[in-house]
Amino acid sequence: MGPLTNIYVFACVFTFTLWNNIQPAVANEFIANYSSSLLTNVPKNIPVHTHVLDLSHNRISGLSISEFIYLSDLQVLNLSHNLITEIDFSVFIFNEDLGYLDLSHNNILKVYCQTLAYLRHLDLSFNKFSALPICQEFGNMFRLEYLGLSATMIRRSDFRYIIHLQLHAVLLTLEDFSLYEPQSLTALNTRSLHIVFAANQNFSFSLLYDGMSTSEILKIVNLRYTLSYKDFPPPSLMLLKKIKTTALMLDTVDLQWAIILQIFLFIWYSPVEHLTVRNLTFWGPLGELPEYEILHLLSSLGQLMSLDGSMKTLTLEHVRNKVYYFNQEILYRQFSEMNIASLTIYDAYMPHMLCPNRTSSFQYLNFSHNALTDELFQNCGTLIDLKLLILKRNKFESLSKVSSMTSRMKSLKYLDMSNNLLSHDAADGQCQWAESLTELDLSSNQLMDAVFECLPVNIEKLDLQNNQINSVARGTAELKSLKELNLASNRLADLPGCSGFPSLEFLNIEMNSILTPSADFFQSCPRVRELQAGHNPFKCSCELQDFIHVERQSGGKLFGWPAAYVCEYPEDLRGTQLKDFHLTELACNTKNELIPNLEKGEGRVQLCQHERNFIPGKSIVENIINCIEKSYKSIFVLSPNFVQSEWCHYELYFAHHRLFSENSNSLILILLEPIPQYVIPVRYHKLKALMAKRTYLEWPKERSKRALFWANLRAAISINLPISFEDNEEQSDATSSSSESLYVNN
């Protein structure tokens, strides 16, 4: 969500960070996982060389030394989410390599201490302690980096045994919290502090202020305050001198609007550089404060935020407003005038944002998941330092208006307009994009082919995934700098050429409608290093052979090969990987060999070929019957793949029926390659009988024998032909029922 995200990842998931630090040492060793196994006791059959033991989410209520004494190699132990009521650390006295111990989410009331000097991670959070369970022995855990605790009361003396430890992170869970002695937290020496209050109780403002005086990174969850605004203790300016926090996250905040303003004013004065507020609900009525005081607070806040301060990043996520009456225009003005580098307002039902009155310091704006429209930042010339703009999941409709929005943003490099309602038509006029724009995300919109008439000329990375694009018309786009193009999940029937994208290096065209991709793609796109073309409904035919051949010569440029490249058509080859699809040379060159040799020269005949003789509108079966009935001869060019196809069955059925009904010699069989009997499906018993009884021609692999093959074929065709056959081509046909002429399967 912005620059602040990486900072808070450390604070929020420190447990996983430490786990990852331990993992490399045990990655190749034994891991025993008994999680969620309804266990009431530690199993007795755990392998002795176990390094990682997971016993979480069970019903274990007690531990004994005998259960762990033989696990001398144990490094990680997870006992979270059980029913343990007390813990004696001497249980682990013989596990000298144990560095990670998680006892969180139990019912522990009492701890019997023992120095575990090797521990780096100890989690006792979400338990039933009344006072913090910090024993004197904890002070000897010099390797300790992470400490999770829980209590209902906190006093200054609670941390006295660990004030000398250099901790990375501390987690405090304070359910049913009843007492906090001011200044207690300041005794801690930790870089990151995470405090979780119960969701149904008022939090302590003293804890918030003391937390900010304790750690660089502070996260507080469940800030709820239902008492009167008059009972709210405003922070003193003296506190500002003690503040250490530079990154502050407040999660699940439910406060009166006036209290939020007071806290925000305090934070703005403080050294906090990065502020994130998630799941924010502010409410009213403003009641106890007159409207003029609220306006005064807003005005003061606006004036303050326009001045130089420590804050660089503000992130507001999942914002809900319960104020009975509220002048949003005033608030938009305050946000627009903020003197910070990065602003995120995510999922706040925000319908608009104002253009700053003067040159803005914003470099990063994220207004995702709101209700913004095409009117945003129109004719706005003050966002000249803006580099990244994210507006996904809003209600933008006009691509040309979006382009004009950016036209005066002189520094804009990246724009995300995904998941909107964008469309473009030639009648919308010319598009005027920021010349600096190099990366544009237009995925998941309603864009069609005309989008290529409205794109930034200097774009280098373009995402058009999940739109309604049918083709990339040649000449409509001249994007000389484009290196990456994502056209996945559209309606394209072929690979686009690179006439308009001479610098293209990466193309994603997965999940389109490509049956037979052009084999000359890499020739027309010499700079492409990776092509993602998988998950298309490939039609396994002769035309596809050239593409497969290109893949073999591309040197691994096809991403996802071979698993993502599978035949969809014809039905009998569905699921076959393209790498396993093969056809013979003659099978894919019947137009170049069979047809010219029979239709030209002396004794030429006329062939009924599907591409020129099948009648549009009639079914394939009807066309097959018509061709066979009007022909003197039927030529079947057979290969192992073709004899397994449905169309072979139809063709042979009708031709064979005519052969026997007329008692004629009209059927000619040509074998491209030997066909073993077991390859022919049982249901084609007539084909097996024919091949057993009739003489057939075999295509010779040796070129020297092919002249004889053509002579024999012409002789077979000439047998029993009417005298007028060669004199009247209009009334005589020879049906070539090869895979190439009637269907794709050979």
Gap between N and C termini, in Å? 54 Å
CATH class of the domain at 1-224: Alpha Beta
The percent range for helix content is 10-25%
Number of helices: 16
Word description of this protein:
- The protein has 746 residues and is of the alpha/beta class.
- Among the domains are: 224 residues, Ribonuclease Inhibitor (Leucine-rich repeat, LRR (right-handed beta-alpha superhelix), Alpha-Beta Horseshoe); 105 residues, no CATH class; 147 residues, 3-Layer(aba) Sandwich (Rossmann fold), CATH 3.40.50.
- The protein is 21% helix and 18% strand.
- It has 16 helices and 32 strands.
- It has a 21-stranded parallel beta sheet, sandwiched between helices. It has a 5-stranded parallel beta sheet with strand order 28-32-29-30-31.
- Helix 14 links the parallel strand 30 and strand 31.
- The longest helix has 17 residues.
- The radius of gyration is 38 Å and the shape is flat.
- The two termini are 54 Å apart.
- The N terminus and C terminus are likely disordered.
Supply database-style keywords.
32 strands, disordered N terminus, 21-stranded parallel beta sheet, single chain, Leucine-rich repeat, LRR (right-handed beta-alpha superhelix), 746 residues, disordered C terminus, Rossmann fold
